[in-house]
Design a protein that fits this description.
single chain; alpha+beta; Double Stranded RNA Binding Domain; DNA polymerase, domain 1; hpI Integrase, Chain A; 3 domains; four-stranded antiparallel sheet; three-stranded antiparallel sheet; 16 helices; 9 strands; globular
């Protein structure tokens, strides 16, 4: 739980545009006029839970106001994150002697995962309940580094799954140590995993070759360089659609401006992207009587054609790609969905001559110092990067 200090309050200074901060379920925002607001924000059962705490005309809070914000935030934190009081932890420590690893996994799922975003929560639950099920019957008192090495060895040959499962397991064990389920995490001094990271990037002729075999959702991933689960979770409410531009007779079809705000993503802070026309063209739309594209709807943007509902997992996206590649006479070798994102980011860095531009578009987490002091959103830089990339792809595939 975050401590709301005087220094934190003093740092909430106005800028040209409103900005938001998210840390440990505390949502803080500052408007250009200097108005400061606080709210509690988390997720439970796939629903976004948000409770306003207080707003102030500026950041000149007195001691009583600061303590009141801290108190309300703490009450909501305990209520909605199942935070466990110290006396309960001490009793649990005595009762955990004969508990199994499965009990630790269940507690982690019940008490910690509800505070994470939906996609992360589902992934962690799947790993703990299915991928690591062979560990369920181990007594916590007997859990050692040998069991962790066995679990990792069982996933040899599946580097992506192995890396993801080990990250989840490490986080669960660290949480278990913090909450006194285990005296010390056996992950400490764990030897690093030896794996070859993928470096697959599609060449220009491969992009041109696969374009016609990618459905709009896969093209959207390629053009925006966003994570597949973020595109899968995209809803119409996340898109700010501008007015339809006036078109002259016989003029090529033009699309409205669209801004995509991701309020819930891997880094925990909003990510805003202005989408170029070629990207907007991949959104579901229909053509009116005047020949203009009409964009908009309710719920998920990309839906299953069979169920007319949002895709249930990223496995469906992998199936889309596999089905498209099967129709090609000579499909690109060793090509996965994540290669679309890597291809986009590599080319954005090349076209912009800037690694930072690619990092901003990717919305990678910044270092501790940068994430705390550099709160500028770089929306113009990201818009320029996506525009150059989409123009490059358009010239490549429609030449």
């Amino acid at each position: 739980m975050k401590t709301i200090t005087k220094g934190f309050i003093a740092g909430l200074k106005p800028k040209k545009k409103r900005y938001d901060q998210y840390e440990d379920c505390l949502h803080t925002w500052v408007t250009p006029t200097g108005r400061v607001g606080f709210a509690f924000l988390t997720h439970r059962d796939g629903k976004r839970i948000r409770y306003p705490i207080a707003t102030f005309p500026d950041n000149k809070l007195d001691e009583y106001q600061r303590e009141e914000v801290q108190r309300r935030y703490a009450d909501l934190y305990v209520q909605h994150t199942n935070s466990v009081p110290t006396e309960v932890i001490e009793k649990r420590q005595l009762a955990n002697t004969n508990k199994l690893v499965k009990n630790l996994f269940d507690a982690y799922i019940e008490e910690h995962l509800p505070t994470l975003r939906k996609a992360t929560r589902e992934q962690h639950t799947r790993v703990l309940n299915n991928t690591l099920k062979d560990m369920h019957s181990i007594r916590l008192a007997d859990l050692s580094k040998r069991h962790l090495l066995d679990a990792r060895r069982a996933l040899n040959g599946k580097p992506g799954m192995q890396r993801g499962a080990m990250d989840v397991l490490r986080g669960c064990l660290n949480w278990g140590e913090k909450h006194e389920w285990i005296a010390e995490s056996p992950w400490r001094n764990m030897p690093a995993t030896k794996s070859n990271k993928r470096t697959r990037v599609l060449k220009p002729d491969e992009i041109k070759a696969v374009w016609d075999y990618l459905n709009p959702m896969l093209r959207f991933i390629l053009l925006t360089a966003q994570r597949s689960d973020e595109v899968m979770d995209l809803e119409w409410a996340d898109l700010e659609i501008g007015a339809m531009p006036v078109q002259e007779h016989n003029e090529p079809m033009r699309y409205p401006t669209v801004r995509w705000t991701q309020p819930d993503n891997k880094t925990g802070v909003p990510h805003v992207l202005s989408l170029p026309p070629l990207v907007v063209a991949q959104l579901p739309h229909w053509i009116d009587a005047q020949g203009n594209p009409v964009i908009g709807g309710n719920g998920a943007v990309f839906k299953s054609q069979r169920t007319l509902k949002k895709y249930s997992g990223t496995r469906a996206i992998r199936y889309m790609l596999e089905r498209g590649l099967e129709r090609m006479e000579v499909p690109p070798a060793h090509f996965t969905v994540h290669d679309l994102r890597r291809t986009a980011l590599t080319n954005i860095a090349r076209l912009m001559q800037s690694g930072e531009a690619a990092e901003r578009v990717a919305n990678h987490s910044l270092g501790d110092v940068a994430s705390r002091y550099n709160l500028y959103e770089f929306e113009d830089l990201k818009a320029q990067a996506l525009t150059r990339w989409s123009v490059y792809v358009g010239e490549l595939v429609y030449a």
